Amino acid sequence: MDGVVHALRAAENPENIGQYPIRPLEAWRAFRLLVADKEDTVQVFKIVRALAGRALLDGYLRFLKTPEGGRQAYLRVELADLLQDRDWLAQFAPGTVGARYREFIAPRQLSAYGLAEESRKLGEPDIDAAHPISWFARRGRDVHDIWHVLTGYGTDALGEACVIAFTHPQTRNRAIGFLAFAAAFELHRNKRSAGYLKAAYQAWRHGREAQWLMPLDYEDLFAEPLENARERLNIKRPTAYEAVPLALRNGPNAETPAFVESYGGWPRPA
Question: How many domains does the structure of the chain reveal?
């Protein structure tokens, strides 16, 4: 395994994994730092840990009750290792989820190991623990960019708020809900007519209506045509997000406009 990835270690306090004290002030401080620098990804992990409570444990137990979730838990594939394997990614034909994922990460210089390293900056010992709930937490972290691809939301400030809003009903994690709507409101209060809250609410609704994505076999999914996967999983087009001009998706006062590729793999409107 690549040296970037830390060796898995035994959980120091396995009885506490997936059950964390609620720390709202810590979450708020981390959110203000994130507002000041949206690239400071470690603040996202701080917010999630500060507000998660039992969501991770409850999510894992729910995961086990699904046939595919139980199988994935038994296999314990580390998605970050797969997603970092450029030879594995290269096999997917144009138009597939895997090909779209390649196209998404390359110009943005994203990597699964990079996101993993950001999560380790929390200094929490259970992130890399050899424990099933820690594995489930890593899985939730590592699907983030895949869900960008499936939903069509970009990596601009609004796109991140929307993909997190989509994630909230998928995970039932109050931390995710807080993060999504606090970020959308922060954008909204600077330009109320831009449609930021509408886009975030639509994303949340789409996340509630879609099939539960956590138990998916992502190895099989990557070989599936993106359009077919979206239809099968009931992932709807983010029309409210698309209606927000590119120049406003990082906020009305942002110096950097959103990434120029704006349709997220959806067919361009006529």
Answer: 1
